[in-house]
Amino acid sequence: MNAWANIQTIARRELGAYFTSPLAYVFIVIFLLLCGFFTFLFGGFFVRDQASLAMPFFFWHPWFYLFLVPAVGMRLWAEERRVGTLELLLTMPITAWQAIVGKFLASWLFLALALALTFPLVITVNYLGHPDNGVILCSYVGSWLMAGAYLAISCMTSALTRAQVVSFIVAVVVCLGLLLTGIGPVIQSLSNWFNPAVVSAVASCSFLTHFGNFEKGVLDSRDVIFFLSVIVFSLFTTAVILRGHRRG
Amino acid sequence: MIQVDCLTKLFGTKRAVDGISFSVERGEVLGFLGPNGAGKSTTMRVITGFLPPSAGRVAIGGFDVVGNPISAKRLIGYLPENAPAYTDMTVAGFLNFAAEIRGLHGEKKKQALGRAVEMCFLESVLHQSVDTLSKGYRHRTCFAQSILHDPDVLVLDEPTDGLDPNQKHEVRGLIRRMGATKAIIFSTHILEEVDAACSRAIIIDRGKIVANGTPAELRRKSDLAGAVTLRVSGVAASVVSARLRQIPQAKRIAVLEEKNHSVAVCVYPKANAADGELPRAVGEAAQGWRIEQLQVEEGRLDDVFRSLTMPDTQK
Questions:
Q1: Is the confidence at residue A211, as pLDDT, over 80?
Q2: Would you kindly state where each structural domain of chain A is located, as residue ranges?
């Protein structure tokens, strides 16, 4: 059995599981409602009178993901450990890595689907004006990568505990930390205490800084590598945590 | 097919499994007995590769479970404690997933699924969601998952737990039949299952093996093994005891019952008494009495179990 086939089997199972429970539908509906609501009302889409989705729409993504993505990721490993299916899964002829990657990819694909379903907004802005669709595409890519980073962190917290709620809370706190390090006031107050090199190092760890570049339409490899690094590091830590539970 | 050498598993400072060694070959069904917390499930989890051993080695079909896990796991079918299954899937979906993970596709997968469903009587619940199944059906679903790929080795943790007597009978029959061509190890609390399905049994207590042998060999360890139960009428118990006490092979006499002129006694043999000597001696000593029953006891597994393992409360 080759690795990719195993990953696919696991991913397919996980994706199917999303849609047999209300989870997928609730998530997608809420995400789309929030996007619509915030874009057109709070985001001031019409007030700005600009053919751009950056401020009205993409601006909110890091904040939506903050509480929605951990809700998706919290069950990934916590549930397996609670129900006991982890024992079944890890005694099959697969490696723990194949299971981790399979579950992550399934959830990431699900998030891609939710993002893709926001296409009416793209159609709207194209109908009303002449936006730079390249910037919009770039922003979508950045948003998806960022969602992956949130998701990987949620995988990691999910592996820590059998209680989904704990996983959710810890994931939110960690992600909030990674967000806040990129906010103006926080950077300001940090620069009062630490030298500029440290401050810029901390700021460069922020999701907001890197996502901001995507929003501007800049497809910089450094930003892509940042998000991919967070994903790889979190999944690696997930493997370590899972192994640690069994080592006793 | 299963080779366990000096297996030790520590959880922090607690020795759940302490230097266990045994082997199971094809055609053998090994029963794993022991009080709760003795280390049965932990041993099984190490054998199947879920937990890494703290010391020692486990080999399945020659493959080291730690060094070559994928090859070893391919040979194993495992039924974990509590028979877990994905609650968000149907029985058919779950078995289909298990089949694909095991590398079965297309026609082979269909045949394997059909066979497993038939052997476990799951036809009527195939399209039911796993979380709506009764305990018996969930157990059988998980059991079906373990035999899908016709593995050479079966590791079953309490396979009849929570099943009704009919279902227990079916599962034991299934294990016995499959035991002819596979190496099977299953854990149980139910001593009558040992006779029903096992060719050999191991008793574990607090992480160590305290007995290892065929059910007959284990029964012989009981005090009661080889004892003679005698029931006579028309004689007083004291007379019976007095005469029987004189038998050289008799260790002690226990009066079981005395009512309605009928006396039942049990004569325990001395350790060095040869087979058949005691019954013959008792028969001779009982000359002149009206014998209603004369029976040679086989020994009881629960006596052996109790004498070899400490009760939970004393740990």
A1: yes
A2: 3-41+55-247
A2 touching chain B per CB within 8 A:
no
- Residue A118's CB is within 10 A of a number of other CB atoms, namely 19
Report the alpha-carbon distance of residue A200 to residue A198 in Å, rounded.
Answer: 5
The pLDDT value recorded for residue B311 is 60
Tell me if B146 sits within 8 A of B78, measured CB to CB. Answer: yes
pTM: predicted TM-score of the whole model, two decimal places: 0.87
Helix (H) / strand (E) element for B57: namely: strand B55-60
Handedness of CA A248, B44, B154, B66 (dihedral sign): positive
Q: Which of B314, B311, B280 is nearest to B296 (CA)?
A: B280
Closest C-alpha to B296, from B274, B278, B284: B278
Q: Give the pLDDT confidence of B34-76 residue by residue, as tens digits.
A: 888 888 999 999 999 999 999 999 999 999 999 999 999 999 9
Backbone Cα Rg of chain A: 19
> pLDDT (tens digit, 9 = 90+) per residue, B106-118?
999 999 999 999 9
Q: Would you kindly state where each structural domain of chain B is located, as residue ranges?
A: 2-220, 228-297
Above 80 in pLDDT, residue A190? no
Domain B2-220 has CATH 3.40.50.300: yes
Q: How many residues are present in chain B?
A: 315
Kindly indicate the confidence band of residue B167, based on its pLDDT and cuts at 50, 70 and 90: confident
The CATH fold of domain B228-297:
Alpha-Beta Plaits (3.30.70)
Predicted-complex ipTM score: 0.87
Contact A13 B52 (CB under 8 A): no
Report CA torsion sign: A162, A166, A168, A171. negative
Tens of pLDDT along A91-123?
999 999 999 999 999 999 999 999 999 999 899
Q: B50 CA to chain A: closest CA distance, Å?
A: 6
Cβ–Cβ contact B66 with A under 8 A: no
Whether A247 has its CB under 8 Å from any CB of chain B: the answer is yes
CB contact under 8 A, A20 and B76: no
Please write the tens of the pLDDT for every residue from B218-242.
888 887 788 888 888 888 888 888 8
Q: Contact at 8 Å (CB) between B149 and A91?
A: no
Buried-exposed string B97-131: b where 16+ CB fall within 10 A, e elsewhere: bbbbbbbbeeeebeebbeebbebbebeebeeebbe
**Could you tell me the pLDDT band of residue B313, with boundaries at 50, 70 and 90?**
very low
Task: Give the SS3 label for residue A169.
Answer: helix
Which tokens is A204 given?
A: 């460069």
Q: Is the pLDDT of residue A40 over 60?
A: yes
Residues of B in contact with A106 (CB under 8 A): none
Q: Any residues with CB less than 8 A from the CB of A141 and at least 6 apart, and which?
A: A214, A219
